[in-house]
Amino acid sequence: MDTDLQLDALRRMVRIRRFEEAAMSIVRKGQGIAGSVHICIGQEGAIVGSCLALRREDYMVGYHRSHGHPIAKGADMGPLMAELMGRATGVCRGKGGSMHLADFSVGSLGETAIVGAGIPQAVGAAYSARVRGTDQVALAFFGDGAANIGSFHEGLNLAAAWNLGVVFVCENNLYAMSTALADTMAADSIAARAAAYRMPGIEVDGQDVGAVHEAVSAAVERGRAGGGPTLVEARTYRYRDHAEYGTLDLGHRAVEELEQWRTRDPIDLLRARLLDSGVDVALLDQLDADVAAEVAAAVTFAKRSPMPAPEELYEDLWATPIEPSPRRDAVPVAGAAR
Ligand SMILES: Cc1ncc(C[n+]2csc(CCOP(=O)(O)OP(=O)(O)O)c2C)c(N)n1
Ligand SMILES: [Mg+2]
């Protein structure tokens, strides 16, 4: 990444962190986010490095820990915060909440609370690009726990069999809720599973946004050029609990483990790299101040927004039926990719 792109990456990572800190504060103070939020703080490098490899019109599917993904893809934070607060101005008009954000304006097709369910959706989005004759790629984000779910294997298999432009990005944060990956996975590499589906599997340092960007950019180019899918495993770590209710209870994790990961914080690493390369600290401080103001404005926008009217309850819940595609030739012949 050149300096301009690194500054863009830093801005997006700081946006995610400040946005989620604001969301946590709202939860803690009982100021209008119902239930809990799943915080990705610590994982921003994997998220931003991946999204910066995509074009705006490329598709992206998130999962339950995905406030950061639409922000990384360029979404406006006001309607995202409004969605977390169930407001009518939210990206899903207040009917999705924290775990079901979708912002089609930046290609964010949505999130789901069903672990692994976004993976086949990304495969479907890539297939839709083929049917429509575009060169859009689709990127699926998911966790290490999701890699042990059937839909992971179903999605990878079909994407490879049909040679679709999908990038599968696993944010391996070592835990699925309170379960350590080491206790539930027979082998220690998720990327290695790609070999079973004849696609490249790449392990990358998720704390290094530049390394993630390089790996995912290669995968995106490959998918766009008709080279098929890639699996990228970004090794990373979440600093907060599985879900945020207001207090931190590391429970199943050692505080030393958390502290160790904090020494490789993705934002600190990039900031240090920029300073080393001669960028003025005042520029970075200004970036921080600008983002703080953006997030404050997003919170104000959300808090001042109205709740949806009760009579709108059943609106926007069902898709408008579409005509079946006439392009039967878009269905690949079995075995054609081999
Ligand atoms: C199909 C399904 N099984 C179980 C759950 C309960 N559940 C919610 S999040 C989660 C852990 C997911 O772990 P991972 O995929 O590693 O994502 P992370 O939370 O670490 O980001 C589980 C088991 C669920 N929501 N859906
Ligand atoms: Mg996990």
UniProtKB/TrEMBL annotation:
Keyword Oxidoreductase: yes
The keyword Protein transport is assigned to this record: no
Record key words, sorted: Oxidoreductase, Pyruvate, Thiamine pyrophosphate
Domain Dehydrogenase E1 component: 11-311
SUPFAM superfamilies assigned to the protein according to its UniProt record, in alphabetical order: Thiamin diphosphate-binding fold (THDP-binding)
Highest taxon of the lineage: Bacteria
Gene Ontology BP annotations: pyruvate decarboxylation to acetyl-CoA
Record GO terms (molecular function): magnesium ion binding; pyruvate dehydrogenase (acetyl-transferring) activity
One Pfam family recorded for the sequence: E1_dh
Known cofactor(s): thiamine diphosphate
Gene3D superfamilies with a match to the protein in the record: 3.40.50.970
Protein name from the UniProt record: Pyruvate dehydrogenase E1 component alpha subunit
